[in-house]
Structures are given as structure tokens and as C-alpha cells.
Amino acid sequence: MNPKFKSIAKLLQKFPGVGPRQAARFVLALLDKPESELQELGLAIQNLKREISFCPQCFNVSDNGLCGVCHDPLRDKTKLLVIEKVTDLDSIEKTGLYKGLYHVLGGAINPLDGITPQHLHLRELASRINALTTDSTVELIIATNPNTQGETTALYLRDQFDNQPSLTITRLGRGLASGSHLEYADELTVKHALDYRK
Ligand SMILES: [Zn+2]
């Protein structure tokens, strides 16, 4: 195989879930695109870190400073929904049914991959809970994925924040199949999971 082809395929394999065969398919698809589109993509990647950053409060993606959700004065500050990834946040936002705040953990506890609680945005979560509960009772909605890592993380969160005054903890779950991923759930499923949290 052409060494240039091989090297770009190798770079693409660094993305989550992309194996050698799919990477090769991506390179072929890119070769099919007009030059202008490739340049647009190249430029977008080059500027990615300058133009998109993470919200310092909830770790959602943001243009600059606080994200749209944290910026919105109409969001319900008595609800804080904890998710693993920004893509999970998008799944819930798309339903338009949730009006509270979010906190993106940046992953789930997975000792096999070396991801411990220290790798997640938990210290920031603790200080947000402290700040939000000074004014009112807050519901912490745990919406980590219904798989082993997500459940481990949910247990850890309950353990950490169970005795926190003015905080009730609920778990999003019913309707989401065990082992599934929030980011791939359809809107109706997410709606059920939100409605029937416990
Ligand atoms: Zn934010």
C-alpha cells in the first residue's frame, strides 16, 4: 500500500471506534472529495482548538467562555444532570424536554483503561453542587450510560454526594436498555428515561 495512504489511515485509526479497515474506507472517501472540501476540512481541523473550547463551568463545548446552557438565565438551576460526554448532552438537548443545567464528567470510571475518579471533572462538580445548594434544594440527575462503567460511576457519585444537604439524587435509566449508550438513544427513549428517573 502507498506509504502516504498508510500514514493517513494510521492517523484516522486514533479516533474512537475506528479500525484499520474503516480508516482505509475514510481515506478512500476523502480521495473522492473535491479539493475545496478537503481544504475546508483541513482548515477546520487546524483552527479547532482556537475556535472551540470547553465551558469552564459544565465542560460542554463553547465558542468562548461559558456555553449556551450556562449562559441562559432561564435554565432551571435546581436541576443538575450529569453525563459522561458532550454527545450525551446533545442527545438530551435535542429532545427539548430538559430545562436544567448539565455537568459533563469527561468519561466514566474504568479501571481497566486507567480511568479513575481523578480523571473526571468531579472536583468541579462538587463545587458546583455546593454553590447551587446554597440557594435551594437541587436534584442531581445521574445520566451516565447503563453499562458497567456508567453504573460504576453512578455508584461512585451516589457515594460521594449522598450526605450532601439540600441535594436529592436521581438516576436516569428506565427505558434505556442495559449496556446501551445514551448518545445513540432515540428521542422517545431519552424522553422516557427523563420522565421515569428514580
Ligand atoms: Zn456550560
Could you characterize what this model shows?
This protein has 198 residues and is an alpha/beta fold. The chain folds into two domains: 3-51, Helicase, Ruva Protein, domain 3, CATH 1.10.8; 61-195, 3-Layer(aba) Sandwich (Dna Topoisomerase Vi A Subunit, Chain: A, domain 2), CATH 3.40.1360. The protein is 44% helix and 14% strand. It has helices at residues 3-12, 20-32, 35-51, 68-71, 86-95, 122-132, 148-161, 187-195; strands spanning 53-54, 61-62, 76-83, 100-104, 138-142, 167-171. The chain has a four-stranded parallel beta sheet with strand order 4-3-5-6. The protein has a two-stranded antiparallel sheet with strand order 1-2. α1 (3-12) crosses α2 and α5 (86-95) packs across α8. The longest helix has 17 residues, at 35-51. The chain is globular, with a radius of gyration of 19 Å. The termini are far apart. Bound molecules: zinc ion. The site of zinc ion has 8 residues, from α4. Zinc ion binds at residues 55, 57-58, 60, 66-67, 69-70.
Order of helices and strands: HHHEEHEHEHEHEH
Total beta-strand segments: 6
The main pleated sheet reads as:
4 strands, parallel
Distance between the termini: 54 Å
* CATH architecture call of the largest domain: 3-Layer(aba) Sandwich
CATH top level assignment of the largest domain: Alpha Beta
> Segments where pLDDT lies below 50 for 5+ residues?
none
The CATH topology of the largest domain is Dna Topoisomerase Vi A Subunit, Chain: A, domain 2
Estimate the helix proportion, in percent: 40-55%
Shape: globular
Secondary-structure-based class equals: alpha/beta
